[in-house]
Design brief:
By secondary structure, the protein is an all-alpha fold. It has one domain. The chain has five helices and no strands. Helix 3 crosses helix 5. The longest helix has about 30 residues.
Length: about 110
């Protein structure tokens, strides 16, 4: 049915990538619209401010979706994603696979010289 309608199935990595791109666009809009409302008070500014606020909420939702995709890939041992390939392995117990989300962050190391 999807092939008939012209859709193709998206991989998990594509969904995460699209979610992050959408989050970037939403956050830029939210920032610029919010600044415009602060600098120019006038007719329609309340409505524009409300769209900026909602774009901020949508930014949170899309970043959450990307994080869920990443954790799901870790639990499924999907090594097609470079992040999972470098920071996870099949032998990790479930809590450590969940912690894979934070394992690639620089500066989180407590063993400084």
């Amino acid at each position: 049915m999807q092939a008939f309608l012209g859709f193709r199935s998206l991989s998990m990595s594509q969904i995460g990538s699209y979610a992050l791109h959408l989050a970037l666009a939403l956050s830029v809009y939210s920032f610029l619209a919010g600044m415009l409302v602060l600098l120019r008070r006038g007719p329609g500014s309340e409505r524009l401010g409300e769209t900026a606020r909602r774009a901020g909420i949508a930014t949170f939702a899309t970043v959450l979706l990307a994080a869920i995709v990443l954790v799901t890939a870790a639990f499924r041992d999907d090594y097609s994603m470079a992040y999972i390939f470098h920071h996870s392995n099949r032998d990790l117990p479930a809590p450590y696979k969940f912690a894979t989300l934070w394992s690639g962050q620089e500066g989180a190391n407590s063993s400084r010289p």
